[in-house]
């Protein structure tokens, strides 16, 4: 016959039950506070204060409040302050964010095709919307397309207007920055500017490097906007005669295919050299979060 178990043998089981209960309480609190949009940590002489701002309905607010009170009971030195907003305000915030992101990304969906470039030419030409709007403010520029000092800016503005795709990449990079870094910096007394310089910029450096390489390569290949705005001749006064447009003019207008082919090879070599320089210099200014473990 086996001997009856004593209280000492039941002690590990009791500890296991208490541990499981503690883990369950922490999980419940985490799940209840998942909808938090902002969080801050403060340290006072009485202990630690956690502040959460979140959105949800009344039922979720009641459940969150109960979970918070249980958490404070288990952790006497911690005070949790909650700021609850209505679910409608949360949906309004989501709608505002979606509208803003769509406004940035919509021009990229249109692309840099010939149709968009022709519309852009009409906007900046004589009688276009841009000169008329500027004229109402006393800025009389006339036609940007026919002005050698302004035509290149019309092409540049078209490129800036289509900056939606890199902006989405920047937004994704910002969302990947761990909030714990900002909380730790705030506890150390770092202000907004210091956090931006010491946390946001280093953590975004891989995204900056990626967009920098792509945009430099794309800038060497600008052709359609310059062709459409100048009418194909790089005017006025060769102010929009970009390298690719001159390559096209030599090859398909002047029928100097050998000359155009040599220019194309030089363009490829120039892009390769500049990209190599960027990759070499990136070791001194691009920071990767896992570089210490590599």
Q: Could you characterize the architecture of this molecule?
A:
The protein is mostly helical and 294 residues long. The protein has two domains: 10-85, Alpha-Beta Plaits (2-Layer Sandwich), CATH 3.30.70; 111-293, MetI-like fold. It is 65% helix and 9% strand. The protein is built from twelve helices and three strands, in the order αββαβαααααααααα. It has a three-stranded mixed β-sheet with strand order 1-2-3. The longest helix has 29 residues, at 192-220.
SS-based structural class? mainly alpha
* Total of domains: 2
Strand residue content: 5-15%
Strand order of the largest sheet: 1-2-3
Q: State the shape.
A: elongated
CATH class of the largest domain: Mainly Alpha
Query: Helix proportion of residues, in percent?
Result: 55-70%
CATH fold-level label of the largest domain: MetI-like fold
Poorly predicted segments: 1-12, 14-45
DSSP helix count?
Answer: 12
* Relevant CATH superfamily of the largest domain: MetI-like
Q: Give me the strand/helix succession.
A: HEEHEHHHHHHHHHH
Largest sheet, in brief, is: 3 strands, mixed
């Amino acid at each position: 016959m086996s001997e009856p178990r004593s209280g000492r043998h039941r002690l590990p089981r009791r500890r296991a039950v208490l541990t499981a209960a503690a883990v369950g309480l922490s999980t419940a609190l985490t799940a209840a506070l998942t909808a938090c949009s902002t969080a801050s940590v403060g340290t006072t002489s009485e202990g630690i204060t956690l502040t959460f701002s979140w959105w949800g309905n009344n039922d979720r607010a009641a459940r969150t409040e109960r979970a918070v009170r249980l958490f404070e009971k288990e952790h006497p030195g911690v005070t949790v302050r909650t700021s609850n907003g209505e679910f409608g305000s949360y949906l309004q915030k989501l709608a505002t964010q979606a509208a803003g992101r769509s406004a940035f990304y919509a021009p990229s969906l249109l692309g840099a095709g010939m149709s968009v470039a022709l519309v852009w030419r009409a906007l900046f030409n004589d009688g276009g919307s841009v000169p008329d709007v500027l004229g109402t403010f006393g800025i009389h520029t006339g036609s940007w397309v026919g002005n050698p000092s302004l035509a290149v800016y019309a092409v540049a503005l078209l490129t800036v207007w289509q900056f939606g795709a890199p902006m989405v990449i920047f937004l994704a990079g910002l969302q990947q920055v761990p909030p714990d870094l900002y909380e730790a910096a705030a506890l150390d007394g770092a202000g907004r500017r210091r956090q931006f310089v010491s946390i946001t910029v280093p953590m975004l450096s891989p995204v900056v490097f990626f967009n920098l390489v792509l945009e430099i390569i794309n800038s060497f290949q600008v052709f359609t906007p310059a062709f459409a705005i100048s009418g194909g001749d790089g005017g006025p006064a060769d102010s929009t005669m970009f390298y690719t447009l001159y390559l096209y003019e030599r090859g398909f207008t002047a029928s100097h295919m050998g000359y155009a082919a040599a220019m194309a090879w030089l363009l490829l070599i120039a892009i390769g050299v500049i990209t190599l320089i960027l990759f070499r210099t990136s070791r001194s200014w691009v920071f990767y979060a896992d570089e210490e473990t590599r």
